[in-house]
Amino acid sequence: FHPHNEVHHIKKENIGLIEVMGLAVLPARLKEELKLLKDALISRITDISNNESIAKHSDWYKYLLSKYESITEEN
């Protein structure tokens, strides 16, 4: 199975039947990347393209910023 292009920033590798069933095994790199994204979202940083480790998530990040007016630690 192949992930759709719009989620390649999360996982580009082919996925197996277990993942298709909803038991996803995500790449370990995402743990740190998601922490950095969370911190940037809470701080309302508008451009993450200068951060090499999370720049690949830039389109998704901009979408989240535009969709949610208030992003806090609690939500």
Automatic annotation (TrEMBL):
<keyword id="KW-0548">Nucleotidyltransferase</keyword>
<dbReference type="InterPro" id="IPR005850">
    <property type="entry name" value="GalP_Utransf_C"/>
</dbReference>
<protein>
    <submittedName>
        <fullName>Galactose-1-phosphate uridylyltransferase</fullName>
    </submittedName>
</protein>
<dbReference type="InterPro" id="IPR000766">
    <property type="entry name" value="GalP_uridyl_Trfase_II"/>
</dbReference>
<dbReference type="GO" id="GO:0006012">
    <property type="term" value="P:galactose metabolic process"/>
</dbReference>
<feature type="domain" description="Galactose-1-phosphate uridyl transferase C-terminal">
    <location>
        <begin position="1"/>
        <end position="49"/>
    </location>
</feature>
<dbReference type="GO" id="GO:0008108">
    <property type="term" value="F:UDP-glucose:hexose-1-phosphate uridylyltransferase activity"/>
</dbReference>
<keyword id="KW-0808">Transferase</keyword>
<comment type="pathway">
    <text>Carbohydrate metabolism.</text>
</comment>
<dbReference type="GO" id="GO:0005737">
    <property type="term" value="C:cytoplasm"/>
</dbReference>
<dbReference type="Pfam" id="PF02744">
    <property type="entry name" value="GalP_UDP_tr_C"/>
</dbReference>
